[in-house]
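Case study B.
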Amino acid sequence: MSRISSTLENLKQQGKSALIPYVTAGDSDPGLTVPLMHSMVKAGVDAIELGVPFSDPMADGPTIQLACERALKHNTSLHDVLDMVKEFRQTDDKTPVILMGYLNPLEAMGYEAFAVAAKESGVDGMLTVDLPPEEAHDLLSALKANDVDAVFLLSPTTRQHRIKRIVEAGSGYLYYVSLKGVTGSNKLDVADVESHVKNIKEYTDLPVGVGFGIKDAETAAAVAKVSDAVIVGSVLVKMIEENPDDDDIIITKTSELLADMRQAMDKTL
Amino acid sequence: MLNPEIDLNTVDWNAMPDQAGHFGIYGGRFAAETLMEAIEELSDAYEKLKDDPELLATIDRDLAFYVGRPSPLYHAERWSKELGGAQIYLKREDLNHTGAHKINNTIGQVLLAKHMGKTRIIAETGAGQHGVATATICARLGLECVVYMGSVDIERQAPNVFRMKLLGAEVRAVDSGSKTLKDALNEAMRDWVTNVDNTFYCIGTVAGPDPYPKMVRDFQAVIGREAKRQCIEQTGRLPDALIACVGGGSNAIGLFHDFLGDTDVEIYGVEAAGRGLNTQEHAAPLCKGKPGVLHGNRMYLMADTDGQVVETHSVSAGLDYPGVGPEHCWLKDVGRANYVGVTDDEAMAGFHALTRIEGIIPALESSHALAYAMKKAPEMRPDQTIVVSLSGRGDKDINTVAALEGITL
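Model:
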């Protein structure tokens, strides 16, 4: 069983939902990323989504776009991101790490080379935002051969025939985008999320995580009740944006928020 | 997989793309799941309506009475004589209503949007021609229109920005990335994802996720159908060569498509070589790029070794784009079309030549095609013909040209 599956399975048996933060690798400078990953684990997160910076993050809002621009100012490449995961793994072999990014950096490296390097570095999953299952055949076989999970997005507008296709292609977990829009939007409706997650679960036993628009402990707790994982991104990235030269404050603030979320999520048990 | 061995005489050029929107390895649908439903809805609607006699009749009527089609095929006699080679015929898309070929496509797409019950139209624009063409149709049909435009382009295409505003469109400046066409596209896609229920995204070129490359091609193919008929009427035979500028590639595909099966007709697509193909400052993915994925499709792309899309440069905003439509990529690989580069300086020479010798002020985009005709014509015989797509008129560019030449207006 993959590190992602066993982590989520464990939590499920305790009746808990996973807390998964997203940060863009290399934001605001490459030296922050690995210490930040460790501090987030200390604050109580169960897995980490690490963004691979891309010049044209079309499905993301301004917050993550700016994060990509900051990371790219330091030329943070896919190779660098893999090195960061390798460094993280030197002292943490438990927390799953999922890369999230766009296809072109993977195309540039080559799918096979990427999948091999990802496994070697200790990456557990890859979420390629602009790669629907219809176009994913070659990357999927490379990932599968190297035991790297392929995480796919589902959206409020995804109809049944596509849900079926996506749950068949996906592994590890599924990422349900909780609202129409880009990352960082804020109109999350928990009842609506609940009915969509229920609908997805009719087609699959894979865990379903929910992201987009989760900004505080209260929302995290509410979403935790109706899903297997709560994914938190833009609000953390915003903290990096607001404190560009102060890694200590970034670590303190993100840790506080994540610890609050963890506590609120566990209280709802 | 590149350069597959294909007998060009046996290809069914109308059979492309395949069911999934692929032109060989290019094209496809590389979009976030948040957009897939909207793309499928569009694709279904287009497949259902593209042969609908009523819609086609409406489009034809609008093209005739609103746009002014057919656009003339004009024999540039004086210029041809001066160049001393092949006879140059200009396909006068600059004479269309709104001054460029872009309106051929926006009429089709916005009518489709109306059939789909969409009330809000969004578009991206580089030179502003597609933005103006979209705003124009929206004004006529009474639809809300929002146009995304890079702030660099807003600066260099000020007259078109004002035209869009006069037409009632909202122009939203895009300050991210290189602040040009590619960033306007990113922003338009974000808008689409967010407002997918009531919004139709009217893409201006033959790129983007399937069905855009084929849909925009189908709407622009009128250029080549007319040019073929007109060329035969005027010269008694097919042309020997076609030349068109290629940014995303819509006027070029429009001209080329009906000639693809006429394999004796040589085809030249002209990319923006900016300050030179051997510099980093150009916008010539077919000449210098590699296959990659951006904006929903696989195409030749200008990206660095890490896969990051690089900033491009061209004197013409409409060609300043790091990618190119997938059908062009495929035509290059199978060897049906040739893609070449023309520098800023060469394009300026083409601009001045046509203005002074024929009394036609061309768009800077089209000036790239003209500049290549200036190279190509003298290599050919006077009994041969070249059809050049004069895709737009140059009124919008006079500020740029004046600034380049140190003249204050």
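Residues 71-99+222-404 of chain B form a domain with the Rossmann fold fold (CATH 3.40.50.1100). The remaining cases will be described in the next quarterly update.
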